[in-house]
Each structure stands twice: as C-alpha cells, then as structure tokens.
C-alpha cells in the first residue's frame, strides 16, 4: 500500500470492509505474545490484534514460512518473546507453508489452486498442503539410490561428497521431513540444499530448530545428562540389544528343540525294541495255539483192487514216425 502511518491504517480498514470474504490474508513472521505483545506492534496495537482483525473477514489465511507456522526461530529454546505461529489468532480457514525459507513455488501454487477451484488446497493435520508436504524429502531425493547402496558421505569434501553420495551420516534430516524441495527445487527448480551438497535440516517440520538440530549430526540426545549421546546412538544400542536378546532366545529355542527331538528319537527307538502290549498279547495267542496237540489224521481208505476185466489200457503214442509198434500194442492187449 502506498500510504504510511495513520493513512495506511485507514486504507487497511477501508479495504477490509470493502472486500470482506473476498480476499486471502497472507501472513509472514511469528507473533510475539510476551509483555502483552509489546515486542511487535502496528500503529500502536499488538500485531496479534491486527492479525485477528485482518483474518476475521478473509476467505482464507496463508501462513508463510516457519515463523508464521509455529513461531520458528523466535520460538526456539531460549527465545524471550513468547513467539507463536499465527494459528491461535486465526478464526477462519488456515493453510500453512512452513520452510526456512518458504518456497515461493508453493505459495504461487496455493494461490493458483484457490483461483482455479475457489478453495484452498487440502492439507494435513498441521494445515500444510498435501501437494507440497505430503511426501518425505528422502523419498524424492536424487541421492536416494546411494542411501540404498550404503554409499554415504563420511566427511565434508571426501570422495563420497565429490561423487554426490547420500548425506545421511552428515545429519541429513530428509528421512524425517515432509516437503517437496527435491521435486520442486528453489530458484525456478535450479537447485535445493541436498543437490548443493548439504543435508536437509528439516525446516518444514514443527519446532525444527530444536527438534532437528544439530543439523550436521544425526538426531540429538534425548538425555540431558548425556548430551553427546545422540538419539541415533541410543536407537542403535537399542536395536543391537534387542537383536542380541532375540538371537540368544533363538539359540536357546534351537537347543531346546534339539534336545526334545533327541529324546523323542530315543523313545521311538526304544519302542521298536520293546513290543507293545498288543504285540505281546498276539504273540502269546500264537504260542498257545502252537502248544495244542494236532488232531490225529483220519486213515486213508484202502484202494479197492481193480477188476480183472478192468485191466489198465496202454496208450501207445507214435513218437517215432514209421516205427513198428505192433509188438508193444499186442503186449497191451490182454487175453
Ligand atoms: S541425502 Fe538426505 S534426503 Fe537424500 S537420500 Fe540421503 S538421507 Fe535421504
């Protein structure tokens, strides 16, 4: 707006009245709440009051950047301003575009979505549009193949760094961060942090200054009395411990199963050597039957003498063609 001072306030009030429910409020920066909001005022009013007034008549509000999202750096540990994101002061629809810095591509895309569909884009539970914050940086990163192959940068400037290997071991927070930096890029898609050689710092995530730092190491220690032990160290120790217990349990189970199997095999072999009750009973019956005397054989009837006129007949077979069988034939003929 061209005016300044009291004229600017008058122009703002007139515009809000004339365009009620027909404008989008785009807000950047955190909202200091300490000292009754005295740390950030507009025309003598706490900025929180101005935000309430401006967003009350808006068709929707877009919170731009991590500070407007959840207070950003001003709300990090040690902050003295009681900084907050804009959400507590917005009564209507709110879309948040966190990032430090905000990706201008996502702001433009959100505005175009509203102009096209007359509504703001669908969001996740944190108010972040799904088209921009619906996927992990890690899943769209051009270095992901190196992660899968275990090719990691181990030190800044080493051979892996020169070859564009994965920055996970240098603290990259891509696996924990939802944003489209890898696919959209910055500066018209020219580059983004990981492409430029530094890890993702998770700047689109809630409270990332505290939750994601130190940015060049894996996750910080959750144990205040052991600040040099990172969450990764604890996680690895837990994984190793669980794996060790599981391994011991598996070995114990294997040994027990083998013992039981050996005992079962021994019992089976013993059962083969000692007949079962049924077998013993059957054998006793067989012995008893064998012990009973055999009944006396019936005498065979004596053969009756053949009648004289029933003398056996000799059958002559002509085994040798031309042989004289008359003598034999005659011997067979009785008188
Ligand atoms: S550089 Fe980061 S985001 Fe890319 S694959 Fe490695 S850990 Fe994931």
Question: Can you give a write-up of this model?
Answer:
It is a single chain. This protein is mainly alpha-helical and 335 residues long. Among the domains are: 6-130, Rossmann fold (3-Layer(aba) Sandwich); 137-211, Irregular (Cytochrome-c3 Hydrogenase, Chain A, domain 2). Helix content is 41%, strand content 7%. The protein is built from 14 helices and seven strands. The strands form three sheets. It has a three-stranded parallel sheet. Strand 3 (41-42) and strand 4 form a beta hairpin. The protein starts with 5 loop residues before the first helix and ends with a helix. Iron/sulfur cluster is lined by residues 137-138, 141, 143-144, 147, 166-168, 172, 174-175, 194, 199-200.
Order of helices and strands: HEEEEHEHEEHHHHHHHHHHH
Low-confidence stretches: 283-290, 306-335
- What is the global morphology? elongated
Rounded average pLDDT: 84
Report the portion of residues in β strands: 5-15%
**How many DSSP-defined strands?**
7
Topology-level CATH name of the domain at 6-130: Rossmann fold
Look at the structure and name the CATH superfamily of the domain at 6-130: NADH:ubiquinone oxidoreductase-like, 20kDa subunit
Question: What is the subunit organization of this protein?
Answer: single chain
**Count, helices:** 14
* Strand adjacency order, main sheet: 1-5-7
Helix content: 40-55%
Provide the list of bound ligands, each named once. Answer: iron/sulfur cluster
Give the biggest beta sheet: 3 strands, parallel
The CATH level-2 architecture of the domain at 6-130 is identified as: 3-Layer(aba) Sandwich
* Class from secondary-structure proportions: mainly alpha
State the separation between the terminal residues, measured CA to CA. 164 Å
Q: Any idea of the CATH class of the domain at 6-130?
A: Alpha Beta
Radius of gyration, taken over Cα atoms and rounded to an integer in Å: 50 Å
């Amino acid at each position: 707006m061209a005016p300044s001072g009291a004229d600017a306030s008058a122009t703002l009030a007139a515009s809000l009245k004339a365009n009620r429910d027909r404008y989008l409020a785009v807000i950047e920066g955190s909202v200091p709440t300490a000292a009754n909001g005295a740390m950030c005022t507009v025309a003598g009013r706490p900025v929180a009051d101005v935000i309430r007034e401006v967003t009350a008549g808006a068709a929707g509000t877009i919170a731009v950047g991590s500070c407007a999202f959840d207070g950003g750096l001003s709300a990090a540990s040690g902050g003295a301003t009681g900084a907050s994101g804009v959400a507590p002061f917005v009564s209507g629809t709110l879309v948040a575009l966190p990032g430090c810095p905000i990706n201008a591509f996502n702001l433009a895309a959100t505005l175009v979505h509203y102009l096209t569909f007359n509504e703001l884009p669908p969001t996740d539970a944190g108010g972040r549009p799904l088209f921009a914050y619906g996927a992990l940086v890690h899943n769209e990163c051009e270095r992901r193949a190196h992660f899968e192959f275990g090719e990691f940068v181990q030190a800044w400037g080493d051979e892996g760094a020169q070859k564009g290997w994965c920055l996970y071991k240098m603290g990259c927070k891509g696996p924990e961060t939802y944003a489209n930096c890898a696919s959209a890029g910055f500066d018209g898609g020219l580059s983004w942090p990981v492409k430029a050689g530094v890890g993702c710092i998770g700047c689109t995530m809630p409270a990332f200054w505290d939750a994601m730092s130190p940015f060049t190491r894996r996750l910080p220690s959750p144990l205040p009395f052991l600040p040099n032990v990172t969450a990764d160290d604890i996680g690895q120790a837990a994984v190793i411990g669980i794996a060790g217990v599981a391994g011991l349990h598996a070995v114990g189970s294997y040994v027990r199963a083998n013992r039981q199997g050996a005992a079962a095999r021994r019992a089976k072999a013993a059962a083969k050597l000692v007949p079962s009750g049924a077998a013993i009973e059957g054998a006793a019956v067989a012995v008893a039957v064998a012990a009973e005397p055999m009944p006396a054989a019936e005498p065979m009837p004596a053969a009756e003498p053949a009648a004289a006129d029933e003398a056996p007949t000799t059958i002559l077979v002509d085994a040798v063609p031309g042989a004289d069988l008359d003598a034999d034939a005659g011997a067979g003929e009785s008188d």
